[in-house]
Structures are given as structure tokens and as C-alpha cells.
Write a structure and sequence with these properties.
Chain lengths: ~170, ~200
């Protein structure tokens, strides 16, 4: 995990954690990771209509003895709030990988509200966050979050910063 | 909207759920919050039933995750019309994954039963089975009476899924039959029963 290809480092961390279900609402920052998961026969990929479905899906997976991970954009964190009751009340594991918007270089002002509220929203519902700003630390961050989530901490999120991903550019 | 009609529906929810869970064998059950969880408890609490006390809208997605994880086991989601309406998008997700071992039964009394029996949209024009079919779920139906229930039971317990039925049940207030409340315990109880003693580590 050198960081030269941090998206592959995330994928490798998920494989090393024995994650078998990967649910997502797409974000541009997750595109290659989603493709890698779709191409791997060990992993069932689950496209969602809204991120909160993924929180419940991961809980069901855990009941059945499988580990899962949930990929989303920071705006999706807001959609998950009540469903994270499963994490806070039942201590179901939730490994969440968030592609951040509404920070470093954001040019869509509508992304700022949820982007700036992401860490605190997760914290309020019992999910700890690890910020990943540098490519070389991304793989280790996902592994660390997974180790926390699957060993009883409940919810653990890795926030992939917009500085890492690159801010979205809008061109007319 | 016809808020009165459900008060005369012939099917009674407790009898329906007892039938659905009769001789349940290897069946894994997710029970949505409120009356479906009480119905499942009245039919006999089981370690392999996970009753929800919250997380409204999540029952079908939870069943989906479980069905993917345990393809060799039948998974039955018992939930209510209000809970299903809150998570309707999950029907599209279920259809997209199409697990053959997943069945969803909505006990549709056309009411929010825990909050004062206010009508839900199914008391009006909303047809949950039609929505499930349009989402792409291959086996769907609505049961209105004993004959319809017979077919629903057969499909929910045995058809290659995913299966979705709306079972129209009488709007009535029944004695509570409460499952255990501690979510951590319910989760560990389920996993230990399904996966063995090492499951909690």
C-alpha cells in the first residue's frame, strides 16, 4: 500500500478484511473502486437507491455472517441518520467509505452544507471517522476502520478528502 | 382514500403470521417495527427472528443483506405498509440483486398502527404489489381473502424469488406481544443460533 494507486489500496484493504458485500450510491471518487469490486467474484456489489438502504443491508449481512462495506458521497451521510440506529442501538458493524464534497476547492455551494456536517453527523450517530488526506495513508485507514468496525466498535468511516480525490470542476 | 374499508377485511394479521411461520424450520425472519414484530412474537419468539424496534424503512434491505449472505436459507421479511412505504426504493434494489431465497410479506392494514391508526397511502390509490412488480420483482401478488392467502403462503415459503406479497389484513388494535428490546442481545442471539458459538467474536 504505497499510495501510488490508492483506489486499489482501498480494494485490497476490503479484500484483506474479508468484505463480501459492497453497497454503494456512486460518487465520481469511487468509480474505479466500484469497478474493481464489480469485477471480483468474491464480492457481491449492491447498487442502492439511497444510502440508508446500505446501513440496513450491512446489518443483514452481519446477521448472516458476512462483512460488508458501504460507499457513498458525503451528501449521502445525511440520508443515513435514522438508519444508523442499527449501529448505535445494536452495535451492528458499519464500515463506511465516504468520498467528500463540500470542502477543499468545492465550487458547488450546495455541497457545503452536508460536507461540512459529515464528521459531526456521523459522530452523533455513533460512527467514528478517520480523515484520509494523503494517498499513502488511504489503504491503512480503511484497514484500521474495518478492524474497528468488525471488532465491536460499531460504525467506522473513512473520509476521503476532496484534496485527495480532486475537486469536481464544472465547465460550461 | 377509503379509510373505513380495512376495518372489514376478512384476514386477521395474527392468524396470517401464525400461518406464515408455521413449522418454520430453517426459515430466517426479519420483522419490521411495530405490529409485524408483535405478530411474530405472538406466533412464538425465536432466536432466528430479528425484530426491529426502529430503523423504519430498513426491513427489506436487512433481509436482502441476509439473503445474499446465506443463499442456502430462506429469508422472510415480515413488515407493515407504513414501513414498506418508507423504504420503497429497496424494492428496486431487491429486484436488481434478485436473490431467489428472499420473500417479503407486507401486512397491509392501510394504517400507521403504532401512532393512532392514521391511514397510509395504501388506504388510497397506492398498490404495493404493483410497485414491487414494476420494480422488477418476479413473483408478486396481493392477498385479500383465505384463497389468496393460500397462494401467498405457498409462494412466500417456497417459490423461487424474490417474492413480494401485500396481504390485506383487517385494521384492528390487538394486545401487544413484545419481543426483547436489547438490540445488541438480539443481534448476538441471532448470530449464535445461525453461526454457532464463535459468532460473537
Amino acid at each position: 500500500m504505497t499510495g501510488a494507486d490508492w483506489r486499489r489500496d482501498i480494494f485490497q484493504a476490503l479484500v484483506d478484511l474479508d468484505v463480501r458485500q459492497v453497497a454503494f450510491v456512486p460518487d465520481a471518487g469511487h468509480t474505479r473502486l466500484i469497478e474493481m469490486c464489480c469485477d471480483d467474484s468474491r464480492i457481491v456489489t449492491v447498487p442502492l437507491t439511497t444510502e440508508e438502504e446500505g446501513v440496513a443491508l450491512l446489518a443483514g449481512a452481519w446477521l448472516g455472517g458476512q462483512r460488508g462495506a458501504l460507499l457513498m458521497q458525503s451528501s449521502g451521510v445525511g440520508n443515513c441518520i435514522n438508519m444508523l440506529t442499527l449501529v448505535k442501538s445494536c452495535r451492528f458493524p458499519a464500515l463506511i467509505i465516504v468520498a467528500m464534497r463540500g470542502q477543499w476547492g468545492e465550487t458547488n455551494p450546495w455541497q457545503m452544507a452536508m460536507g461540512q456536517a459529515t464528521t459531526e453527523s456521523l459522530r452523533l450517530m455513533g460512527v467514528v471517522s478517520i480523515d484520509a488526506d494523503r494517498a499513502e495513508e488511504v489503504g491503512a485507514a480503511v484497514k484500521a476502520a474495518g478492524d474497528m468496525a468488525f471488532n465491536g466498535a460499531g460504525g467506522a468511516a473513512v473520509l476521503l478528502s476532496q484534496r485527495l480525490i480532486g475537486a469536481k470542476v464544472f465547465e460550461d | 382514500m377509503d379509510a373505513a374499508r380495512a376495518t372489514t377485511y376478512p384476514l386477521r394479521r395474527r392468524e396470517v403470521v401464525s400461518s406464515l411461520l408455521f413449522d418454520r424450520g430453517e426459515l430466517l425472519v426479519i420483522a419490521g417495527l411495530g405490529a409485524p414484530a408483535w405478530d411474530a412474537t405472538a406466533a412464538g419468539d425465536s432466536p432466528l427472528t430479528f425484530p426491529l424496534w426502529g430503523a423504519m424503512g430498513g426491513a427489506s434491505s436487512m433481509g436482502l443483506g441476509l439473503a445474499i449472505a446465506r443463499p442456502e436459507r430462506r429469508v422472510l421479511v415480515l413488515t407493515g405498509d407504513g414501513e414498506m412505504l418508507m423504504g420503497m426504493g429497496s424494492l428496486a434494489t431487491v429486484a436488481a440483486l434478485a436473490p431467489g431465497n428472499l420473500a417479503i410479506a407486507v401486512l397491509d392494514n392501510e394504517r400507521y398502527g403504532e401512532t393512532g391508526m392514521q391511514p397510509t397511502h395504501t388506504a388510497g390509490t397506492t398498490d404495493l404489489a404493483a410497485i414491487a412488480a414494476a420494480a422488477g420483482i418476479p413473483v408478486t401478488g396481493t392477498a385479500h381473502d383465505a384463497q389468496g392467502l393460500k397462494r401467498a403462503l405457498s409462494d412466500l415459503r417456497g417459490a423461487v424469488g424474490p417474492v413480494f406479497y401485500a396481504i390485506k389484513v383487517r385494521a384492528e388494535e390487538l394486545p401487544l406481544a413484545l419481543p426483547p428490546r436489547d438490540g445488541v442481545w438480539l443481534k448476538d442471539r441471532f448470530r449464535t443460533a445461525l453461526l454457532g458459538d464463535g459468532a460473537s467474536t
